[in-house]
């Protein structure tokens, strides 16, 4: 599950003003695609098209062979988890923030969820020791801590497809590296799209595409692109 394809995708917010041009992508299930490029290149737009936040002008986007126009919004939401750049948290506990919107979760579920499986691996790795702070209120979290909570929240949904839309771009490079390395360690097997403006953000990717002014100008492996700088 989680095979994403773009076939000759064109999109513009306004008629006659194309933002994405002739985008072809093939992201096999369980692999990681990195989309790198300068601000304004169209990276976030590309991510939003995947969950039909906007409808494309022409071309086709499929998930597991199905045109996303034929898939209900609910199943798209279930299939795709997104972590945005800036996370606004509720002034509540880490557990509450992680479980928010996960229907039917009670206090115990929330605590369990926050400690559960991959998420616990994510949280407990941190030197701050989140596992013991899951129920604490009024936390003052750093930007990096907030993004960790946001990622844990998205992983709790266990979507086949995970999109990190500049999820670590606002952080210092050390914190960014720590988060990306943790994710890389626990996230094998999930189709992942990492959007970043710096190539250095990419710890691991099966393929990298460089987007500039709405076009793919380069694509290759991590080693290929690092070799070119
Ligand atoms: P990136 O993520 O690479 O920084 P975006 O996808 O955010 O790029 O933006 C690509 C282009 O689309 C930019 O020129 C931006 O101004 C424009 N754009 C983004 N969102 C909207 C919108 N909601 N309405 C109109 N134009 C938009
Ligand atoms: P859930 O639907 O389980 O609460 P998410 O928290 O991942 O899952 O996202 C909820 C919805 O919010 C998404 O399906 C999407 O429509 C919207 N959303 C999330 N992140 C973004 C984003 N960066 N830009 C635009 N919309 C977003």
TrEMBL record:
Question: ABC transporter domain: from which residue to which, for each copy?
Answer: 4-229
Q: Which chain positions lie within coiled-coil regions?
A: none
Per UniProt, subcellular location reads as: Cell membrane
Question: What name does the UniProt record give this protein?
Answer: ABC transporter ATP-binding protein/permease
Q: Specify the species.
A: Sphingomonas adhaesiva
Span of the full-length protein shown? 356 to 584 of 608
């Amino acid at each position: 599950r989680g095979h994403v394809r773009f076939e000759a995708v064109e999109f513009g917010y306004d008629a006659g003003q194309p933002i994405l041009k002739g985008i072809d992508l093939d992201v096999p299930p369980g692999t990681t695609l990195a989309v790198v490029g300068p601000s304004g290149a169209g990276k976030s737009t590309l991510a939003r098209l995947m969950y039909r936040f906007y409808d494309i002008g022409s071309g086709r986007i499929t998930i597991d062979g199905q045109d996303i126009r034929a898939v209900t919004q609910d199943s798209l939401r279930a299939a795709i988890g997104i972590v945005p750049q800036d996370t606004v948290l509720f002034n509540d506990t880490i557990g509450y923030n992680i479980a928010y919107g996960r229907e039917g979760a009670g206090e115990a579920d929330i605590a369990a969820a926050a400690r559960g499986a991959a998420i616990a691996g994510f949280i407990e790795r941190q030197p701050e020791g989140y596992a013991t702070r899951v129920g604490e209120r009024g936390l003052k979290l750093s930007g990096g801590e907030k993004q960790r909570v946001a990622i844990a929240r998205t992983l709790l949904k266990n979507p086949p497809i995970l999109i990190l839309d500049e999820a670590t771009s606002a952080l210092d490079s050390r914190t960014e590296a720590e988060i990306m390395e943790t994710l890389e360690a626990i996230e094998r097997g999930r189709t992942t799209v990492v959007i970043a403006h710096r190539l250095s953000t990419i710890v691991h990717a099966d393929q990298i595409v460089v987007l500039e002014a709405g076009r793919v100008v380069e694509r290759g492996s991590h080693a290929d692109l690092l070799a070119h700088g």
